[in-house]
Amino acid sequence: MSSILSVRQLGKTYAGGVVALKDVDLEIERGEIFGLLGPNGAGKTTLINIVCGMVNPTYGTALVDGHDIVRDFRKTRSIIGLVPQELPVETFETVWKTASFSRGLFGKPPNPEHVEKVLRSLSLWDKRDARIIELSGGMKRRVLIAKALSHEPELLFLDEPTAGVDVELRQDMWNVVRELRESGVTVILTTHYIEEAEEMADRVGVINHGEIILVQDKNTLMRELGKKELTLHLSEPLPGVPPGLDGYRVVLSDDGSELTYHYDTKEEHTGITALLASLQAEGIRFNDLNTSQSSLEEIFVDLVKRPA
Known about the structure:
The protein is of the alpha/beta class.
């Protein structure tokens, strides 16, 4: 699959010597949803602002659909849609005029049919004549997305798109993002809600201290870096972990009724068979067992805690 965004050795150092980005390499495939994760100050917004032409890079290059973001600024900006975390809008303007005006900013001729389609897809059609000041926070967020889509971009940046919206509206917006991908729009999503990336992203990138530390298919990432735990519900409580289980990574619950065994999914031998044999040798019986796998949030926290 061809890349719609190709970043090569991109760096940004601000006045005073603050390094926001360092030697960033990144390829975004056409038609994917890419989740960019990182703690506050990691460089996510700086990277987006550079690609969108709002911040100049110190060095390196970025190509949007083969066009250089510096030499071909007008072309690349017309390909990109951006939904920033915060963007003031004309509070007394209507939803319809806001979306239509944004389309004109990119030199696109009026297209009421397209604007209507965008507003309907975002459940804003019934609010088309409402002034922005009359809308809820979640609806205002949808207006920002409508503005970003009004000029028919091929690459859409969503910077914390569901920050401050309720759970129900967040689910609705996830559906909107999926529909955008199905229509051919490539989506790059930054979020503090790890479940958002886990739910929607095809691939995940982790940025920390201005450097990309990992880019991986989401499912592969969870399979290779995720840990599993096996919980055994014991027939009779134990006063402590028997000496015969000292060689295993097991933890006994406070009430002695459960044993939890941790193992890596990437290991060739999980040790479960040997553990069960040792339990039988110790005369320990259990009524039930279940397994669970670490979430993307746990993997993310582990990655950003690793030494730089």
